[in-house]
Amino acid sequence: MGKYLKxxxxxxxxxxxxxxxxxxxKMARWHEETWPQIRARAGADGGESLFADLVxxxxxxxxxxxxxxxxxxxxIVRRTGNRFSANSMSAISTRGRxxxxxxxxxxxxxxxxxxxxxLVGHFDRKIHLVVDGHSAHRxxxxxxxxxxHAEEIELHFLPPYSLELTPDEMVNADLKHRLPKSHxxxxxxxxxxxxAGSSAAANASPTLSAATSTAPTSAAPSxxxx
Length: 226
Description:
By secondary structure, this protein is α/β, with parallel strands linked by helices. It has seven helices and five strands. 38% of the residues lie in helices and 16% in strands. Helix 3 (109-120) runs parallel beside helix 4 and helix 5 (167-182) crosses helix 6.
């Protein structure tokens, strides 16, 4: 049966998840109207459009499987029993450049302002940044910061529960899949360092360009980082 399915152009796949709260009409309108308008404004400003997203990596997360004797669980991955995590805020541009910031603190409005401040430092033109509806993105502190940097950056929001519209979500998914297989961190600082190293290495991976091709814009990673 497997041979027949392959001949018919089918492959064994894991179904993608979709939130039941999604509004298909809002998503279609964003894809067909809002996003082209954002990109046109960026072009008119001589600026650049990017997608940003947050990802967290836990020390006790294990991904992937291998073969073993039935009824006998393998112990191949040895990790510290302590639980800790690291976060990475990243942005990927329509030109294929990725920028990221790894941190161990909680993500809040102050951290978002810190990321925005670092991000605008890489550009001499206006940024149009697409983000989700996280409360930190809509906070008064961030709004005040944006008001003071209106000539440098502008935020645009995705429809609710529609992260598959952003190519950065796919980059983050790749990070969460690869890093837990290999990291040897014994503490939070080491995990943060390995997260940064893995993110930098992902920039050179040609497979990520294919992973982002289903997003509103094709974004192939490059070697540029903060």
